[in-house]
Known about the structure:
The model is unreliable at 93-104 (pLDDT under 50). A hairpin with a 2-residue loop joins strand 3 (97-99) and strand 4. The strands form 2 sheets. This protein has a 3-stranded parallel β-sheet, covered by helices on one side. Strands 3-4 form a two-stranded antiparallel ribbon. The chain is built from 3 helices and 5 strands; from the N terminus they run βαβαβββα. It has one domain (4-144). The chain is an alpha/beta fold. The longest helix is centred in the middle third of the chain and has 31 residues, at 62-92.
Amino acid sequence: xxxxxxxxxxxxxxxxxxxxxxxxxxxxxxxxxxxxxxxxxxxxxxxxxxxxxxxxxxxxxxxxxxxxxxxxxxxxxxxxxxxxxxxxxxxxxxxxxxxxxxxxxxxxxxxxxxxxxxxxxxxxxxxxxxxxxxxxxxxxxxxxx
Length: 145
């Protein structure tokens, strides 16, 4: 069965990213409110597939740090029985696979995934008209306004 891919940016969409960037394997801030509920609903869906993509994906320790972060917060939010299961699903589904000679991770792809929908805090919706430099310079992510 074909599932529609939802690509979620990590910093600013899942991780609240209120501190400054330090390293790919250091994630200090709590999740964005309701991010875990949204991720859980995607993982439980039969219609959608989750891909988490970040600049961390291609950096040493980045994917493992995101996996550990999500596992920690799912356990904290849902308790050990449910949270560990969700966290382990995100970790165990990340075995390196080979498809058409391209390596990728199931929930944490190494390259930008083809997606039905991408959710990112640092993006503009392209509607066929390119933004002016004034619009570009005025852009602020939701948590920096």
